[in-house]
Amino acid sequence: MAYAVCPNLECKYKINVPNNFRDTLQCPNCTSIIRVTAQEGVILDVRLRKIDLDIPSGLPSDLEKILYESIACLEAGSNAATVVLAGLFLEGLLIKVGIEDDRLVEMIEKAHKAGVVSKLGYHFATASRLIRNMGAHYSEELTRLSSSDARLVLEMTRKLADDIIASGKLSNS
Q1: Predicted TM-score of the model (pTM)
Q2: Three-class SS state of 14
Q3: CA–CA separation, 70 vs 123, rounded Å?
Q4: Which of 42, 111, 123, 168 has its CB surrounded by the most CB atoms within 10 Å?
Q5: Domain boundaries along the sequence of the chain
């Protein structure tokens, strides 16, 4: 077991954490929700969770890592990085289910036609892609993305992940 120290400045309680862990937990002392990453008994990261976004179960570990990084960017106030990483996550999801193309717009269309994403998921993916396009290259709009914009993209991305997992076409490799 590893020990994580609660990052709440008023608490600092030591919490037992499994040796290999990357998830949220609640401090038994102050009830703060914290994100903890431990690998082979070493605590790599402990922080207060600022947003409530569950990671869909059944994601391959490489995609889960990208989604965690996107959430971390949002929590750190880096809205552009959040949107770009969410787009990378979406592209990775589609590739993992065998949907490939040179352009994300075509990948989304193929995924919808193949029944990998729902009609609502298709519209979410399209909106998310359009916002992400601002992050593909520098633009004034990119600098004006708000945390609400970035969070919306994350929420839409999570919906797409749920759709793709529910389709049964995602292998956890």
Answers
A1: 0.72
A2: strand
A3: 21
A4: 111
A5: 2-48, 61-166
Residue bearing tokens 């916002």: 131
Report yes or no: 25 and 36 within 8 Å, Cβ to Cβ: yes
Q: What is the CATH number of domain 61-166?
A: 1.20.120
Helical residues (DSSP H) of the chain, grouped into ranges: 61-75, 79-96, 104-113, 119-136, 140-143, 147-166
Is the torsion defined by CA of 76, 82, 84, 88 positive or negative?
positive
Class of residue 119 by CB neighbours under 10 A (exposed 0-12, middle 13-18, buried 19+) = exposed
How confident is the chain (173 residues) per 10-residue block, as mean pLDDT?
90 93 88 89 88 80 90 84 90 91 89 88 83 73 84 87 85 60
pLDDT score at 38: 93
- State how far the Cα of 145 lies from the Cα of 51, in Å rounded to an integer: 17
Closest C-alpha to 104, from 114, 115, 92: 92
Whole-angstrom distance, CA of residue 27 vs CA of residue 34: 7
Picking from 37, 55, 47, the residue whose alpha carbon sits closest to that of residue 8 is: 47
